[in-house]
């Protein structure tokens, strides 16, 4: 296949694509048309503003005039008629001027928000092109803060970049022109102190900008340190370095404090100077203007109009000063963004273009020639050469630090080589578009990055290259979609619809959703994750309204399991739910509700605080019994656990109370002994009343729940369900032997009971029996599909490390790459599991080539080609037999190693 894209030498040049070096060049490039329109609206406001200054003068003079009636537009107008006509004209002018300002401000906001959206999109797009080394130098939190918080002020400024100085400057010039028209001395008085401001303010602002730049850098450093502390919190606890962390934090916040304090002093001195000058100017107006009125050189109306104009002069001048300060602050922020988001060796933008037509497959030979890679000043790979066929398997072995992982990343084009090249067939790997490398090569490292979402989402992520089918929408949706496309184009964003179907079924060897599920199940089996996903499916929920057949099948499994539990070897392993009997393997709270809570209203840990629950207990005459039981339980708990150290396993296994809360209960028990149950305060009553709800008779065996109390709890159970208020009916899904419980897990629906405490390995035996029943009824496959909808949590935090690594391998295998690169991706697995996955991946029907970085050189015998590395160099390569022989004879001439690259 032929080379595509540009050469890697142009990659550094592409770093400037999309981002202008200065904020104003950015404004002109991306919003020139809008800025011209804003300027046109601004210019249209000038005559309206002048009219709002001129008319008050005419109105005041008209009030004091005596030469009425006067002819106007062919009509004789009296003084009152003329006054009303002038006032109406003034009102119309104010409305027009205000309306124009409204349109101008909204338009500026729209332009600013579009540019903010564009800037964030450009910055995020550049992150997608960063070299891997950049992520090792820049903290995640710092990058996030720059795109979200630090870029925010830029959008607001861009809307104002030209329109605000033009508008406010125009208002200022218009007001000054009006003053000079009235009397040139008043005009001079208005601008007399401006030179001082124009000289002093920029100098102060420059000092503030320097401090602001220092503040931003310091805050970023603080963010980086906070992130490191949070991610390494276990090291803080393990080595008792919390005080050192506080000291370092104190140092950084002190530095920020000093910088900000200096900024405050300079900023408020600048504000003081502006305010003083603003108050000094009226002195000239009152003295000079008053003199001119007394001398009869100007009218009283002119003086009033000038004073009004001066009042209108201050806001635009302040706005211009604020704009200048914002411009300087924005300039500093923009320059810092450019500096941070323009690293060397960025991926060429053209390599991330969307593919058109079929993406070619990789074929021929993988040939690395004099390949080198540097990480900072360290040469990780030093002039290695090797070759193997694309469809073959290659093992890369060597000790830690040998460069084996770097070779894998270079083959997957995760990293770009510092020197040399990798060719696949006729194509240079460095110049292939990501549409080729991202679809035809798969890479899995030891650290698998998962996304928030479900197991299914993470598996299908590797098939989501571009939208392949539009989402189905109604007429309103079509209109919203068209609006989205328009705004995306105006903001320079992609118009691709995230709600569309992005799944490339053909890439996975499927022709639609159903066959894709079959393919996913097969891949899960390859990596040994099928049992895990099945178990996740058992913990999942099913909506019986959306899947009535599955709900019915699960009820069938419930009946079958009930029959199997009657067999002698399983008898007494599970105590089933029975509305007429007290379940000794359930807590008191669970027995009372006899259902699964929905939402937080009847949360089992706080059910004793619920007003409705307490009213039910009061009606059942159980409040005093519960309080007495709570005192007994607290007394026993204090006696049993008082002398145990905090963190002892018995607290977790047997105690109702944490070690931290034990002194509180001990104090409550003492007060109960002194005052008696009736003399307890409400806080102590509530504390002690919480304990009985946690009692599980079969587990705790304290003998405090006699048959009488259990019988009354059963009566309270019926009363609870019968009297549940209408607004709480949806808060509990009650147990019913004939119905599917939508709020309970699939496993709980099948089990419909509680495993018995005290039975040897009861949990494991019951789980195995459920698996047998499900498999016998043909439900395993569908429950695996339910497990695919399990939410993995942030970065896959709800999955174990082993599960995350298996999932990483599974999705790489799912897209059927021409070259699968696995870099110690199963390192956390036990030897047997790792070996089984290796064998199944290598034996996958129709697979492409496989490059596997191995810890155990002995496993390399299963591969066609073996590359052995040490200290960044290849010490041997060839077939497993040739490689083993070369390792055994280290004195072998290095020329034979190099010659192997050309084989």
Observed structural traits:
single chain, 903 residues, alpha/beta, ABC transporter transmembrane region fold, four-stranded antiparallel sheet, 33 helices, 57% helix, 10% strand, disordered N terminus, disordered C terminus
Secondary-structure blueprint of this entry?
Blueprint: H1 23-64, E1 70-72, E2 75-77, H2 79-127, H3 132-137, H4 140-150, H5 152-160, H6 163-182, H7 184-191, H8 194-231, H9 233-239, H10 242-294, H11 300-340, E3 365-375, E4 378-389, E5 393-397, H12 404-411, E6 419-424, E7 427-428, H13 434-440, E8 441-444, H14 455-460, E9 464-469, H15 475-490, E10 501-503, H16 513-526, H17 530-539, H18 548-564, E11 574-576, H19 588-593, E12 595-597, H20 611-619, H21 623-641, H22 649-653, H23 662-675, H24 682-689, H25 697-700, H26 707-722, E13 732-734, H27 746-751, E14 753-755, H28 762-776, H29 780-787, H30 801-814, E15 819-823, H31 831-842, E16 849-854, E17 865-870, E18 873-878, H32 880-888, H33 894-900
Parallel strand pairs: 5-16, 5-17, 8-15, 15-16
Antiparallel strand pairs: 1-2, 3-4, 3-6, 6-7, 9-10, 11-14, 12-13, 17-18
Helix pairs in contact: 1-2, 1-6, 1-11, 2-5, 4-8, 5-11, 6-7, 6-11, 7-10, 8-10, 8-11, 10-11, 16-30, 17-29, 18-28, 20-26, 21-23
């Amino acid at each position: 296949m032929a080379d595509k894209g540009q050469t890697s030498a142009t990659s550094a040049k592409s770093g400037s694509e999309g981002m202008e070096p200065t904020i104003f060049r950015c404004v002109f490039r991306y919003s020139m048309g809008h800025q011209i329109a804003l300027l046109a609206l601004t210019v249209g406001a000038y005559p309206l503003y002048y009219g709002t200054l001129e008319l008050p003068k005419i109105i005041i003079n008209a009030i004091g005039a005596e030469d009425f009636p006067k002819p106007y537009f062919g009509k004789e107008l009296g003084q009152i008629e003329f006054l009303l006509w002038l006032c109406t004209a003034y009102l119309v002018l104010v409305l027009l001027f205000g309306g124009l300002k409204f349109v101008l401000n909204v338009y500026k906001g729209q332009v600013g928000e579009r540019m903010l959206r564009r800037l964030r999109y450009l910055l995020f797009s550049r992150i997608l092109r960063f070299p891997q080394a950049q992520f090792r130098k820049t903290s995640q939190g710092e990058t996030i803060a720059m795109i979200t918080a630090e870029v925010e002020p830029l959008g607001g400024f861009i809307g104002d970049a030209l329109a605000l100085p033009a508008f406010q400057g125009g208002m200022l010039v218009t007001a000054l022109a009006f003053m000079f028209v009235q009397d040139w001395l008043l005009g001079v008085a208005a601008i007399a102190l401006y030179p001082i401001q124009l000289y002093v303010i920029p100098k102060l602002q420059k000092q503030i900008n320097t401090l602001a730049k220092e503040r931003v850098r310091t805050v970023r450093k603080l963010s980086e340190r906070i992130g490191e502390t949070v991610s390494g919190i276990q090291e803080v606890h393990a080595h008792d370095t919390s005080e050192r962390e506080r000291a370092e934090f104190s140092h950084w916040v002190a530095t920020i404090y000093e910088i900000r304090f200096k900024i405050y002093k300079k900023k408020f001195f600048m504000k003081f100077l502006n305010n003083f000058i603003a108050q000094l100017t009226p002195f000239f107006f009152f003295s000079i203007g008053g003199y001119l009125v007394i001398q009869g050189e100007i009218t009283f109306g002119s003086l009033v109009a000038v004073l009004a104009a001066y009042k209108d002069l201050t806001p635009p001048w302040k706005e211009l000063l604020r704009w200048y300060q914002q411009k300087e602050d924005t300039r500093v922020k923009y320059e810092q963004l450019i500096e941070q988001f323009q690293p060397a060796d960025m991926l060429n933008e053209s390599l991330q273009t969307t593919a058109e037509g079929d993406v070619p497959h990789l074929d021929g030979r993988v040939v690395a020639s004099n390949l080198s890679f540097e990480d900072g000043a360290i040469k990780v790979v030093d002039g290695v050469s090797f070759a193997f066929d694309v469809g073959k398997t290659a093992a890369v072995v060597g000790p830690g630090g040998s460069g084996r992982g770097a070779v894998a990343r270079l083959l997957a084009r995760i990293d770009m080589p510092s020197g040399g090249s990798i060719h696949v067939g006729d194509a240079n790997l460095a110049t292939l578009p990501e549409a080729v490398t991202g679809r035809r090569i798969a890479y899995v490292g030891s650290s698998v990055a998962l996304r928030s979402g479900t197991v299914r989402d993470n598996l299908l992520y590797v098939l989501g290259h571009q939208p392949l089918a539009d989402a189905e929408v109604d007429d309103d949706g079509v209109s919203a979609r068209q609006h989205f496309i328009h705004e995306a184009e105006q903001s320079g964003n992609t118009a691709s619809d995230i709600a569309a179907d992005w799944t490339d079924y053909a890439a996975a060897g499927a022709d639609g959703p159903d066959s894709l599920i079959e393919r996913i199940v097969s891949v899960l089996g390859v990596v040994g994750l099928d049992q895990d996903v099945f178990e996740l499916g058992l913990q999942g929920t099913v909506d019986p309204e959306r899947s009535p057949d599955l709900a019915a099948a699960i009820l069938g499994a419930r009946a079958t399991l009930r029959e199997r539990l009657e067999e002698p070897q399983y008898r007494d392993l599970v105590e089933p739910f029975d509305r007429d009997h007290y379940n000794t393997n359930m807590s008191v709270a669970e027995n009372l509700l006899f259902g699964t809570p929905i939402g937080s209203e009847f949360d089992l840990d706080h059910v004793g605080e619920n007003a409705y629950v307490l009213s039910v207990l009061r009606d059942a005459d159980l409040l005093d019994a519960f309080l007495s039981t709570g005192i007994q339980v607290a007394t026993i708990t204090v006696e049993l656990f008082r002398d145990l150290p905090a963190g002892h396993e018995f607290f977790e296994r047997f105690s109702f109370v944490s070690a931290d809360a034990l002194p509180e209960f001990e104090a409550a028990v003492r007060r109960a002994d002194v005052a008696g149950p009736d003399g307890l305060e409400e806080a102590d009553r509530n504390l002690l009343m919480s304990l009985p709800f946690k009692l599980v008779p079969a587990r705790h065996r304290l003998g405090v729940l006699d048959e009488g109390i259990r019988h009354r709890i059963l009566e309270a159970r019926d009363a609870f369900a019968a009297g549940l208020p209408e607004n709480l009916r949806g808060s509990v899904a009650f147990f019913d032997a004939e119905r599917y419980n939508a709020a309970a897990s699939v496993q709980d629906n099948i089990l419909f009971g509680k495993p018995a405490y005290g039975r040897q390995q009861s949990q494991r035996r019951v789980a195995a029996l459920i698996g047998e029943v499900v498999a016998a009824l043909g439900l395993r496959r569908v429950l695996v599909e339910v497990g695919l909808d399990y939410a993995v949590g942030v970065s896959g935090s709800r999955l174990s490390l082993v599960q995350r690594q298996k999932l990483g391998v599974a999705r790489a295998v799912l897209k059927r790459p021409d070259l699968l690169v696995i870099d110690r991706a199963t390192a956390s697995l036990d030897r047997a599991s790792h070996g089984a996955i290796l064998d199944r991946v290598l034996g996958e029907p129709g697979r492409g080539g496989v490059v596997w970085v191995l810890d155990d050189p002995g496993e390399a015998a299963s591969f066609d080609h073996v590359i052995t590395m040490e200290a960044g160099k290849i010490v041997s390569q060839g077939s497993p037999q040739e490689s083993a022989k070369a390792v055994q004879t280290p004195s072998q001439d290095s020329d034979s190693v190099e010659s192997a690259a050309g084989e």
